[in-house]
Amino acid sequence: MPEQRDPGESGGPSVGALLARERASLGLTQVQLAKRAGMTQAAVSRSETGSSSPGMRSLQRLAAALGLGFTLVLQRGDQAICEVAGGGPS
Questions:
Q1: In the list 35, 63, 66, 80, which could disulfide-bond 70, CB 3.0-4.6 Å?
Q2: From the CA atom positions of the chain, what is the Rg in Å?
Q3: Helices 56-65 & 41-49, crossing angle to 10 degrees?
Q4: Whole-angstrom distance, CA of residue 82 vs CA of residue 19
Q5: Contact criterion met (CB below 8 Å) for 52 and 40
Q6: pLDDT tier, 11 (very low <50, low <70, confident <90, very high otherwise)
């Protein structure tokens, strides 16, 4: 299956593809991740496949369930104007 990519200049893998990769590296199923994150398996699947874009709260829950940090940075050009952090390993 080809790797999903976000539109934009970076050309890197999509958030969903990164979540799926991290989940797989931990040996978790979508059902197991959903349970950890307090979500449904369908919501995890939609987030991973890109059929819908997860909101910030869902991303925070998924990141925390995967033991990942989560930071949202809003920027104008190269200058960060707002940074919101959450989730992460305990």
A1: 63
A2: 13
A3: 100
A4: 24
A5: no
A6: low
